[in-house]
Amino acid sequence: MSPDRPQELRPRIPAQTHPPLTTDVVVTGHLARRGQPLVPRIGRTVWSTLVGIGIVISHAWSSRDTVQYPEEMTYLPPRYRGRIVLSRDPEGEERCVACYLCSAACPVDCIALQATTDETGRRYPEWFRINFSRCIFCGFCEDACPTYAIQLTPDVEMSEYERPNMVYEKEDLLISGPGKYHTHDFYRVAGLAIGGKGKGEAENEAPPRDVRDLLP
Amino acid sequence: MSGGRAAAPPKLVTVIIDGREYQAEEGRNMLDVALSLGFDLPFFCWHPVLGSIGACRQCAVRLYWTDREGNEKSEIAMACMTEAQEGTKMDIFDADAIRFRAEMIELMMLSHPHDCPVCDEGGECHLQDMTVMTGHSYRRYRGRKRTFENQDLGPFVTHELNRCITCYRCTRFYNDYAGGRDFGVFGLRNQVYFGRAESGTLESEFSGNLIEVCPTGVFDDKPFSHRYSRKWDLQTAPSVCPDCGLGCTTTLSSRYGELRRVQGRFNRDVNKMFLCDRGRFGFEFVNAPERVRTARVEPGLMGGQAGGQAAVMNGELALDAAAGLLRGRRAIGFGSPRASLEANYALRALVGPANFYLGMSDGDDRLVGAVLEIAADPRLRLGSAADIHDADAVLVLGEDLTNTAPMLDLTLRTWLHLRPNAVEERNHIRRWNDAGITRIKRREPSALWIATTHATKLDAVAAETHRAAPDDLVRLALAIAHEADNEAPAVPGLGENELEVARRWAAALSAGDAPLVVAGCSSGSLELVQAAAQLAAALRRAGERRDAGRADAAARATLVLTVPEPDSVGLKLLGGGRFVQGLAAIARGEAEVVVVLDNDLDRRAPALLVDDLVRRRPPMIALATLEDRLTAQADVVLPTATFAEETGTWVNHEGRAQRYFAVQPPGEDVRPAWRWTRELLVRLGHREARGWKTPDDVLAALEMELPRFAGVRAAAPASTGGRDARKVARQPLRFSGRTAVDAGRTVFEPGPPPDPDSPLAYSLEGLQPSQSPPELRARTWWPGWNSNNGLHKFGEELEALGPARPSGVRLLDAGPPGRELPSPSAPARFAPDGDVVLVALHLIYGSEPLSMYTPSVAGRAPAPFIGLGDEDAQRLGVREGDWLRLWLPWMDARLRCVLVPSLATGTAGVPVGLPGVPFISLPARARLARLEEPS
Ligand code: SF4
Ligand code: SF4
Ligand code: SF4
Ligand code: SF4
Ligand code: FES
């Protein structure tokens, strides 16, 4: 049994990992300007105010962008980042494999789920919850998802009077189709055996080896 | 303290890595050295305990050497197989080495399945980390992947062999270290298969360690996989295993308020980094439906109809009712060896020392008492599991370690594998050179001697074994003591064979400097424990006499004694009346109220006595975690926290006080037992208890009142917080779902619950692993090192045991020296006489009650039985599976017979604690007869 390891061999563990946060950086610009002479400062202020008023007046004659919503609907492209859905694979099974990557990616931590496994070994979420009253529709969850299960859609009409109604459970999220990605099927690519797909039956897989076989 | 041997300070040499000079310990491997210096050098097959074999080719570096002409040459070499010597020079960031490492990973990944999202290893996968580290991010290979069929390895461990990278860690652990025989490596070329010959439950009691040893997702935690969470979502806390008296340190992980998994936590003194399967998987009682979750009060107490349905109460009202029950009445309390020291002490304060009874069986009480006396004997020192590594010969006396203290079994096996060896020393083969030492050790004779009442699993690695009835084991131990040291009294009437064995074993044990005797409480025989102590003392005397006058005297004999439960020693040290005395006090009507602290009284005394208690129905307050027949009739039931929900202290078998911490808040009405007791004390006007705000305060009061607990508070940092008074974060920085977890219930996002009891916080704000003190660090994480293989970042490799702080504090070392214990007189030789002597059979799955709440553990426990040797079976005319009737003076029972051929004639084995087997104080005499059909 070796005794104490010499001091110099220990990895150094930083005591403080973040530099102290100060407010200096924020206020420096303002302080610098204060030193300037008074007359040019007044002149610049008056001039920029006049320019601003000019721009505002010029807009009175430009064409209108306002749409008469809800009588008139605006076009939202398919990749617009609105209400989130959970999609199904081409075989109609749930795509989500409960890998927790979306919940880890979410900057506001508004996704929570619990993984479970069916009797054939297929992983899926036992429950899946998104708190839309927190979601900022950043789409990080969709980026993180390895199975195209979670997708943002061009639906933005989800206002509610009560905040609890903004909490969507799996039943509210799961749709019946594949969403934006029609062909991807994660379990056909993965090596995990599930009901209806044994070892060696996934894409690019050779049949299982017979370990007792000594032939080349 | 660990290890008595003062090793020579390591020789430091200068090594050159990437052109800079560093100091390193001579003889360590360069991978270990580089990692300790903080370099990120990828590896797979090297493991801090298992050593190196150079199989994975991942730790490639450019190594320089000088040829005869003095020219500097260089080559790609494996750092893990290179010894640090003066001037060893290597480059990690050499272009060829970098490319080599990346190509090795690419080759390993050729057939790797596209599994990470559905792989339980993901997020704590060493293979993921190394793949990222070497920069292999894009699959170029488009061919077909090789696949394997998996096996069903039983209820504990999953098998997904397609993920294997052939590092051989699993078989090195399972076969070479843990001594498993039903697992191995098959096949050849690129179809190397790690598994069993055919599907089936892994037989080893240490199979769960495969999960942590395997760097990929081949072996994972099966119970955990059914309610899986990623590592970054798990709230963790450092804890201690509740399943035996060894006190292995663990890490608990919980999610959504449910305890999800238990892992080994690195610890220098007790279990290093491994765990047995009972400790790893037997935690389900925490989540069991049998948990008491709400306070209940008998309606009669609240002015309602007596005897009606107990009302579910708010905790405060229940406390009022309990205080009303206690006020002005004489109460007695039963402590518990599985509750915290704090709770036991608080209960002792509530009922008064004179009315405090130890809730352990009479046998345990006497034996643990003997352990404490032995600890005070100035000639002896109680050793820990780690002391085994310093021994040169070990005698196991009367303990079936695999089943009573499983990690001692693994420690002994590891010791046999790693202990210094003359061939190795002659050839300068280092301990980390696993391929080398495995080959040598296979040929080396064992240094382990085992004397037990029946065959044990450890016998397979023993030099010699001896089986005898308990009395004969005592005689053997005393005979060995006499052979080793003539001062020890001789044993009269020894048989030829016994004498022969005693001579041989005495010679073997006294040959080296450091013999070690392992014995314990499991057999129930007091004389055996005392004899073991005499033997250790005799060996020590013999060693000292031999060394007398030598300057380098190194003789020291150590004694390791097992105890049954996590706080057996703490409770006995606290002191109190025996359990049956308490029952007698109730029977005499002296006790007006009974307070029972988290205990299963049916396991503490014969059914006769407990039935009597139940019949009498004394007014009772139960502080309970789990429902049983006493909580069903208690007047007040106060739900107490389990070890996973409270902060507390346990004193292990060698007197080491260790703190365990809550991993999740208790929830609902559940509170730590000491808090309930404190509230009662306050209601009853106890001044001091008002000041008990944290467990530290309770321990301070304990230290003040009972000086033998001095220093117990130092077992862990105070609850006020660690460095900068900041608390350690139980949650990792990437803890997810904080605004959604509770949203199904409320959208108002309640803040994290406060935790005044410990220096940890239920939050991700606070000290993260790199900042927290070692004893509060439950998980390892370092940038780029998500798996447990990042342990080296914290300077805790096994080979360099330096910086890790010892776990907890040893209380018994500081105590006043007691008297030298006299030798027990040798019992008469055991002679079968028609009756049988019942001896204890312990079962790793079955004897420990808490773990039996785990379905996968309970599923591995056998049906109730009684074990019989061949001769006795013949005499009684029974075969395996027949019914037997068992008479003792105060009870009888019917059990099925199972043949245990190794049992001595005239003895029968009773499975201790197995559901369906009645409590019997062992060893005991009984009469057996065949039963035609049970009525
Ligand atoms: S869109 Fe962004 S904020 Fe919303 S759930 Fe996904 S990751 Fe979270
Ligand atoms: S990332 Fe995709 S597959 Fe993973 S849990 Fe989220 S939705 Fe499911
Ligand atoms: S073993 Fe690691 S790399 Fe392989 S699938 Fe599992 S997580 Fe991914
Ligand atoms: S199964 Fe795991 S531990 Fe065993 S060789 Fe494969 S990767 Fe290594
Ligand atoms: S770690 Fe060095 S070859 Fe595997």
Layout of helices and strands, plus pairs?
The complex is a heterodimer of chains A (about 220) and B (about 950).
Chain A: H1 24-34, H2 38-58, E1 84-86, H3 101-105, E2 111-117, E3 123-131, H4 140-144, E4 150-152, E5 167-168, H5 170-173, H6 186-189, E6 205-208
Antiparallel strand pairs in A: 1-4, 2-3, 3-5
Chain B: E1 12-17, E2 20-25, H1 30-36, E3 60-66, E4 72-78, E5 89-91, H2 95-109, H3 126-134, E6 145-147, H4 169-177, E7 184-186, E8 193-195, H5 209-213, H6 222-225, E9 235-240, E10 249-255, E11 258-264, H7 277-281, E12 295-297, E13 311-313, H8 315-326, E14 331-334, H9 341-351, E15 356-357, H10 362-376, E16 393-397, H11 401-404, H12 406-418, H13 422-426, H14 434-443, E17 448-452, E18 464-467, H15 470-484, H16 496-509, E19 515-520, H17 526-547, E20 558-562, H18 568-574, H19 579-587, E21 593-597, H20 607-616, E22 620-624, H21 629-633, E23 636-639, E24 648-651, E25 656-660, H22 673-683, H23 695-705, E26 728-729, E27 760-761, E28 809-810, E29 836-841, H24 855-858, E30 865-868, H25 870-876, E31 883-888, E32 891-899, E33 907-911, E34 924-931
Helix pairs in contact in B: 8-22, 9-22, 9-23, 10-17, 10-18, 15-16, 15-17, 19-20
Bound molecules: iron/sulfur cluster (SF4) (4 copies) and FE2/S2 (inorganic) cluster.
